[in-house]
């Protein structure tokens, strides 16, 4: 099953990382995991934007047209997959600095399972209040960072002290990557590719 490590990462993360390390999956398996899990925020955001409406504060909920929401959701899906692949590349690229020698598949596994709680935040879209989604998003981000810090020493086979510095570097690169994606979104929206509100 594609999502067979999901429960373990929440219930007993360190033991699950050791299981993942013992049974290294193929590149296709890791990509399948990312592609399935990235559907959650994309589909839930589409449903919320078209049928529920987003509440930013006081006033009526903001709804998007179906076509506009479909474009935004598809772009989100592609962006999430590209972001996970780019994070895996950064993990792989930095490995030699910390005396680790992972394959790209191992780096992709680490990126895929680390990003999973962040992608699961998409379920919060069923209650599309900005404060609630931000709160759940913060919890998802916190747990993703925890998974990264606990997983790096195990997957990369390095001491915990080096793993801490390595994971901190990955977090920094991830934040830069997130900033680049947000800036790209702003640029695309300013060029007329932004969402269209339903009348």
Question: Would you write up a description of this structure?
Answer:
It is a single chain. By secondary structure, the protein is mainly alpha-helical. 74% of the residues lie in helices and 0% in strands. It is built from eight helices and no strands. Helix 2 packs across helix 7. The longest helix is centred in the last third of the chain and has 34 residues. It is elongated. It starts with 5 loop residues before the first helix and ends in a 6-residue tail after the last helix. The model has no long low-confidence stretch (mean pLDDT 88).
What's the topology here?
Layout: H1 6-11, H2 13-22, H3 27-37, H4 39-52, H5 66-94, H6 104-120, H7 130-156, H8 160-193
Short description:
The protein has helices at 6-11, 13-22, 27-37, 39-52, 66-94, 104-120, 130-156, 160-193. The chain is mostly helical and 199 residues long. The longest helix has 34 residues, at 160-193.
Which labels suit this protein?
8 helices, elongated
Structural class: mainly alpha
The secondary-structure element order is HHHHHHHH
**Poorly predicted ranges:** none
β-strand number: 0
Can you summarize the main beta sheet? none
* End-to-end C-alpha gap: 43 Å
Approximate strand percentage: under 5%
Instruction: Write down the overall mean pLDDT.
Output: 88
Rg to the nearest angstrom?
18 Å
Helix content: over 70%
Count of helical stretches: 8
Shape: elongated
